[in-house]
Amino acid sequence: MNSIQAANYFVHFNTNCYTKLHEHLTESNYSKIFVLVDSNTHEHCLPSFMGNLQTEVPIEIIEIEAGEIHKNIETCTGVWNVLSELDADRKSLLINVGGGVVTDLGGFVASTFKRGISYINVPTSLLAMVDASVGGKTGVDLGTLKNQIGVINIPEMVLIDTSFLSTLPANQMRSGLAEMLKHGLIYDEAYWKKMINLADFTLEDLDDLIYESVQIKNKVVTEDPKEHGLRKILNFGHTLGHAIESYLLTHDTKEPLLHGEAIAVGMVLACYISNQQERFPTEKMTEIKRVMIDMYGKVEFNTSDYEAIIDLMKYDKKNSHGNINFVLLSDIGTPVLDKIVPNTTIMDAFKFYNS
């Protein structure tokens, strides 16, 4: 696979990853290399990665706890302290080997330690490969509120080795597929149709779909790196999806959802709202609901859940001037930005989802 040029860096794939990494380390004068992993990727991914890492530069491994619950400033403080204790300086490199929690948090740690050191992302989950790989968004959660603290800062490179996907459980694979489905809905109906026929695909076909998904996101981000306009379309399904994800994290009696699972619900809700406000075709709305529920199952919500989730939307990063801004669709591949939606319509969307 050819490398994809993003904004001032490249996304490299599979065997080409390690060739490009070796070239970069040979050309750069790093004082030390720090590899950030979580407890899962330390066990399942680090041995393979280290076996492909060729360098004479001293290497230190830093491990954090796995899971979204640890994507916070407290974890960052722990990593910053370890970097200091191990004499990291401005010429150090941080390589983040893990899913979205590791790459988001590691990118933020690198961007802020000593006012910024270089970092490389090695996404090991499907979600991180197709979402966190492009755009330079780094950050952590504030309590249960998603990605409230962070900066946009590009890595030196991103390395996508799809062999790491063999270490993922099925629910993590499905979580990543949600972002790929989203790319089809917001950008390319032909890609959407490929994605809903996954049962007939081989692992090689999945590699091609991942590559195409990264291309779609890269086209959007390259045109609008700071999210002033077009890049907002990547938030389709996220306004409600993030609120649902945060809400379920706060309730001991409810089963939390992975990011992609929550976004799948958010996309069904957004399609209903699009149907009501933007005349999104009813037959496509119905098909999208069927696809999402077939793949992810149905989450049970009641009226009190609706109200609490709607209340959480006020914390969404895309809001401005006191308005909650939605990305909607007038058709597949035709997004509409900055739409204000009445609470009654959101309530009706939940009823449609539950029906």
Automatic annotation (TrEMBL):
It holds the Pfam family DHQ_synthase. Residues 176-319 form the 3-dehydroquinate synthase C-terminal domain. GO terms for cellular component: cytoplasm. One of its GO terms (biological process) is chorismate biosynthetic process. InterPro entries: Dehydroquinate_synthase, DHQ_synth_AroB, DHQ_synth_fam, DHQS/DOIS_N, DHQS_C. Its EC number is 4.2.3.4. GO terms for molecular function: 3-dehydroquinate synthase activity; metal ion binding; nucleotide binding. Its cofactor is NAD(+); Zn(2+); Co(2+). Keywords: Cobalt, Lyase, Metal-binding, NAD, Nucleotide-binding, Zinc. Catalyzes the conversion of 3-deoxy-D-arabino-heptulosonate 7-phosphate (DAHP) to dehydroquinate (DHQ). This is 3-dehydroquinate synthase. It comes from Kordia antarctica.
